Amino acid sequence: MYLIINIMFNDKQCLIASWYISCDVQFFIIGVFIIYVYTKNNKYGIRLLATVVILSIFIPFIITILTKSEGILKIHIPFLENPRNSIDFNESYRASYMRATPFFTGLAMHFIVEKLIEKKIKFSLTTVYSSTLIVTVICLWIQYYGAIFYDRQRPYYVLEQALYLTFSHCTWTVISVWVTIFNYTSSYGFLEKIFNNRFIVPVGRLSYSVLLINLIVMAMSQGSQRSPNFLSFISLLDAGICGIFKTYLISLLLYFVVEAPFDDLTKRMIWGKNERKKSPLWKKVQNEKSTIEGSSNLGITNV
Predict the structure, then answer these.
(1) How many helices (H) and strands (E) does the chain have?
(2) In-domain check, residue 175
(3) Do 183 and 201 share a domain, yes or no?
(4) Which of 33, 203, 272, 273 has its CA 20 to 30 A from that of 232?
(5) pLDDT tens digits for 210-248?
(6) How many Å apart are CA 197 and CA 169, to the nearest integer?
C-alpha cells in the first residue's frame, strides 16, 4: 500500500526513478478494471478506455493553466543537488495524473492493432518509412522546443506552457503508437531483422530495470571516488563501458527476481492461458517469435 500511495503523500524515494513504480501500480489497478469492464461489455469497455485516455491528455493541460506552473522540468544545478526539493518535480512532473497518457494509450493500442490485423490492413514500405520519419521529426521538434524555456528573459505564457506540457508528454507515445501499428500490420523491412534478433530482444526486456538502476549505478561510481580525476576520452570510455555493464548486470538480476515473475502473473490474471491465444495479436506475436527462434536455431545448426 505504501508503494501505491507514496507518489502522492511522500517525497522520499529509495531510487531516483522509483517514483514511476508508484504511477505504474496505480495505472495497473485502473487498467485491470477497464479490462474487466471490457470482458463484460465490449462497448462499455472501449468507451471507458477512450474516456480515460482523453482525460489523461486534458488533465495536465487544465492543471497547468489553473496552477500557472512550468510546462517543463528545468534541470538546473539546485535540482541536480536534490531533485526531491523541486516543486515542479513533486507537483507537476511525477504526479500519476500527469503521466497517465502513455500507459492508457498503450492499452488502447492493443484493441486498435487487433482490429487492424483482423481487417488485414497493410501499408507499403514507402508509407511505413516516410510517415515514421515525419512523425519522429515532429515529435523530436516538440521535445527540443522546450529549450526556449531556459531563457531567463522569456516571458511566461500560461497557454504555451500548458500546450507544451501536454504535447511533450505525448511525443514518445505517438512514436510508439506509429511504430506499433506498422510493425504488427505491415513491415519495417530489414529493420525488423535488426530489432527482432536474439540479442536485441532480451536486452530490450531489461529497459525498465535499466531505467530504475542506471542513475544509482552512476551515482555510486562517482561517489566512490576519493580524488578528482581528469576526464579524458579514454577514461570516459572506460567509465561508460563499466557503467553499462554493471547497470545491465544488476538489471538482469532485478528482471528475473521481480519483473518477469510479476509480469507472467499479471498476464495470467488478466488473460488466462486459453483466452489470450485466441487473440489475433497474440497469434501475430507468436508467429513472429517462432520465425525468430527458427532462424536462430537454423543459424546454430549451420554453425
Answers:
(1) 16, 0
(2) yes
(3) no
(4) 203
(5) 888 887 887 777 767 777 777 788 888 888 888 888 888
(6) 30
